[in-house]
Amino acid sequence: MDTLSGSAAPDRLPERVRDDLMDVDRLRAIWAQHRQGQSRDARGAARRASVRSRVRQMGGGPALEALLESASGDRMSGRPVTAEVVEELNHDAASLPEDCASRSPRRTLGADRARRLAEAAALPAHPVVRAAHTYAECVAVLSELDESHTPRDRSPWVLPWVLASLVLRRADFPPLLPDPASEPARPDDAFATLVSRFARLVTGALRDELSWTPDAVPQPRSAIPPLAAVLRRRLQDYLHTRAESVALILRSMDPEARASVHSGGADAPTADAVGAAAAAPTVLTPGAAHWWTVLELVVGDASLTLAVVVQEIGHPRTGVLAVTANARLATADGVRDALDMTGEDSVTVIPTDCADDRWPQVRDLVDEALSRSMQALTRV
What we know:
Number of helices: 11
Shape: globular
Distance between the termini: 39 Å
Low-confidence stretches: 1-6
Order of helices and strands: HHHHHHHHHEHEEEEEH
Oligomer: single chain
């Protein structure tokens, strides 16, 4: 992987990656304004809850939870990333129990490698670029230290996430948590690809923190905002078009197969109980307004419900929208998820966007969700 400092210069990154970084900056400005209404204690409690949830998802225990809580807390936001700090964090990572859901080297970094990582964390670049650079350098260093008997598929390395998170915290960004489903560094990636992936991860972290709510959440408004209305209408039209082509494919397998499209919203959930159930797992802000368009496919005894959801993020309202997807496959064996999509796959819409700005990403999300759904359905 090319992670030389020269490749991280803004003028050497492709335009699409620079656009991703601009989107991150715009969303961060909304995040910074929104958190002014949240107390420090409330933010700390919400972050600790996020850490505990992620550690449970990974199958980790108290030791990993303590390490990630320490790295994601506000006290770390002003701490410089020196070689000594790198060695300290590596020692903490290497001290995790053998059965912990993380990967750690069995050898010490040494002063030279620790200094190399500290220099990566000081790269003069956009914080997301710097975090990506630090992550990649750390993966390279740990790979050098990795003993031959260590399973290559053991995941994730915890130290690269901790260092990248610390770089972001120093720039007043929310921390990143390890996500085995979104491991960003791959040996054959160009650096621009890694930065783009990190931009999506940081966007997800910003959006997640915007989703934090007070105990009392107001009921969704009855009126759908103009931008959400436009996106929803386009989704309805697009899914109607895709339903026609999908139905032809399914009828070649089963003449009785059928496809239908319908819509609903949180303002009238009882009107579409099936759509509400399919949309619910993707709702990021509990109680926030959201509107779904559902494509239902039926082949023999199997049925699939694909819900594409346009939703508001945050309380009080931030103006940020997210477009997410979820699919439920029902067979004689029960009901299961048919997509296995991560937060990185969703689309974030900023208040200054117009529908044309985000529609290509939304269309790609729908196409990917439909492709995965069809694969799940045709394998039954």
